[in-house]
Amino acid sequence: MKTYFVYILASKKNGTLYIGMTSNLIRRVYEHKNDVQESFTQKYGVHTLVYYEYTNDVNAAIVREKQMKKWNRQWKINLIEKENPNWDDLYESLL
Q1: Which CATH number is correct for 4-94, 2.60.40.10, 1.10.760.10, 3.30.70.330, 3.40.1440.10?
Q2: Per-residue model confidence as pLDDT tens digits over 32-80
Q3: For the whole prediction, is pTM greater than 0.90?
Q4: What span, in angstroms and rounded, lies between the C-alpha atoms of 12 and 60?
Q5: How far apart are CA 16 and CA 8, in angstroms?
């Protein structure tokens, strides 16, 4: 069964946020961190994985990503700080 991730990257604590969805979180965050493509995350230096959640349902992941992108900024910050109050980079814990 495949796993799908919805994730939030940040430039720094309370900095610029990026929300994405992928089926391979390690690869996708690596791409963001290493500016593999010209993108929003490259332009704004958004490289720190501060939050992620997962599901086995691709449609649920797509809906959740779209939902989170519509949230106001404070809701996103509250979600991050509930699970990761120090805004630590969670990428290393995935390896």
Answers
A1: 3.40.1440.10
A2: 999 998 999 999 999 999 999 999 999 999 999 999 999 999 999 999 9
A3: yes
A4: 28
A5: 10
